[in-house]
Each structure stands twice: as C-alpha cells, then as structure tokens.
Design brief:
Layout: E1 3-9, H1 24-36, E2 41-45, H2 58-74, E3 79-82, H3 86-94, E4 99-102, H4 112-117, E5 122-126, H5 144-161, E6 169-172, H6 181-189, H7 191-195, E7 202-203, H8 212-215, H9 221-237, E8 242-245, H10 248-262
Parallel strand pairs: 1-2, 1-8, 2-3, 3-4, 4-5, 5-6, 7-8
Bound molecules: pterin-6-yl-methyl-monophosphate.
Length: about 270
C-alpha cells in the first residue's frame, strides 16, 4: 500500500499552503484533519523551502513545530519533521517524531547525518543541489534520472558512513528542487532509476510549480490538487513507497481507485 504523507507547514510563507496554518494552534488543527482524512504520516515543517525563500532562525522554527509534534504524538500519530537543521531534527525526535525529512539530504547542515545516527529515527534524504534562494542556477543535467540517482547514492553512502543503518533510509528525488518544470517531468519519467537504488522512495509533487505548464498559470488550488492525486497514482505505479501531499483526501481516493482497479492484493 502506498503511504500518504500529509503536509503540515506551520509557516507564514510556505510553497503552496502558505499562510493557512501560520501558528501551532492552526497547524495542529490542520494536522488532525489530515489524519482523519487518511494520512499515515504527518510531515511537520516550520521553515519554507519555496523557491526564493529565506532561512528562518532555529528558535522560530522550533517554536512552530515542537508543540504540534508533541500533541500529535500524544494522540498516537506517526510524525515526520521536515527540516534541514540537525538541532531541530534532534529536538523533534525527542518530542516523538519517527522520521527526519531533510530535503537537503544532509547537505545544508553538515551535522545532520551524525545527529540522526544517534537517534532511532528514519531519515528521508532528498535530492538537493543548493539553497532555494538560487537553486535554479544549479538546474543543469544531461541525463537527469541517472544523475539524480548517482547524487542520491552518494548521500546515502555518506549517511551510512555517519552511522545510519541502511534500512532507516528513505530517498526522494526532490521534485522542483534545482529542477525546471521540464526537468521535473523528465525525472518522473525516469523514476525507475531512483527506485532501482533499493530504498523506499518518497515523492513530493503536491501543488508544485512544475504542474503549471500542464494546467496553466491561473490553475486553482483545487485543480492542482486533482492533478496531484493523478501524480500520486502514477508515482505509485512507478514504484513509489509514499507520496507527500496537501490534499490527503483526494490522494486517498485516487489511490483507492487504483487499488480497486488492480485488485486487492497489489494495493
Ligand atoms: N517538497 C517541499 C517540502 N518538503 N519534502 C520532501 N521529502 N519532498 C519534497 O518534494 C518536499 C519536501 C516543498 O514545499 P511544500 O511543503 O510547500 O510542498
């Protein structure tokens, strides 16, 4: 069964749900709603990674996410912390988070892998080439699937060298991170190269800018959520282990349709 990760951005300026859940109280309410809608994991972030975004102070990030994580864990939810900061990751795991989701794959904070190694948490290693502020300057590839797979394999090796056992490692090709829209589509077409690395693969396409050439600049949030439900099914078909989405209900329904189409045993 494809796992659904529900996105909870406790930020005033996130990629695509910015401003909806700017503080822990509204963030918690949103997380509970996503859980009720069928999210298996709640991915809590306190720092936006949207193109062009600036970094936020550690204390601000922690004040946003920790109360939400503590409350959700107390309710029995499975929680992930979406952070590029080792200190935040460690604090979140101490508060009960089971996954550290680092879109930078340990490259933004050199202490990340060693810090996670000291915990029992699993880590999501995202493909990343540099900070969001100027990531498009690094969007150059000859064969994107092969290059992203190689760069991810290098980060996995670094994580293992730092003491994170291989079964604790999830990989993510980082759709939209240092990739143009066309490159993101090409990478999705090449997903087999990422799956072949042998780790569970998490895919994040939800509401992202690369959908714009397909849907049009003025596409509503609802239309981007519908498109995301479709990419969730296609990602599952391509071997993804999990999809990270804003509209959990739409993706849950889309994946249920896929399961029915295929017959129960393959879900
Ligand atoms: N994308 C965003 C943030 N975190 N984490 C993972 N593992 N993969 C992604 O593609 C990803 C991520 C982009 O910002 P958003 O939270 O506003 O969608």
């Amino acid at each position: 069964m494809t796992a659904i990760w529900g996105i909870v951005n406790v930020t005033p300026d996130s990629f695509s749900d910015g401003g909806d859940h700017p503080d822990p109280t509204t963030g918690l309410a949103h997380a509970r709603a996503l859980r009720a809608a069928g999210a298996h994991v709640l991915d809590i972030g306190g720092e936006s990674t949207r193109p062009g975004s600036e970094r936020v102070p550690l204390a601000v990030e922690r004040a946003r996410v920790l109360p939400v994580i503590e409350a959700l864990v107390a309710e029995g939810a499975v929680v992930s912390i979406d952070t590029m900061n080792a200190d935040t990751a460690v604090a979140a795991v101490a508060a009960g988070a089971r996954y550290v989701n680092d879109v930078a794959g340990g490259l933004a904070d050199p202490d990340m892998f060693a810090a996670v190694a000291e915990t029992a948490a699993a880590i999501v290693i995202g493909h990343w080439r540099g900070p969001s502020a100027d990531m498009y300057a690094r969007a150059e590839y000859d064969q994107i699937g092969r290059e992203v797979a190689q760069e991810l394999a290098d980060r996995v090796a670094a994580a293992v060298a730092a003491g994170i056992s291989t079964e604790r490692i999830v990989i993510d090709p980082g759709i939209g991170f240092a990739k143009t829209a066309e490159q993101s589509w090409e990478l999705l077409r090449d997903l087999a190269e990422i799956v072949a690395l042998g780790h569970p693969v998490l895919i994040g396409t939800s509401r992202k800018r690369f959908l714009t050439p397909v849907l049009g600049e003025d596409a509503s949030r609802e239309r981007r959520d519908l498109a995301t439900a479709v990419t969730s099914v296609l990602a599952a078909d391509a071997g993804a282990w999990a999809v990270r989405v804003h509209d959990v209900g739409a993706t849950r329904d889309a994946l249920a349709v896929r399961t029915a189409w295929q017959g129960d045993e393959r879900g």
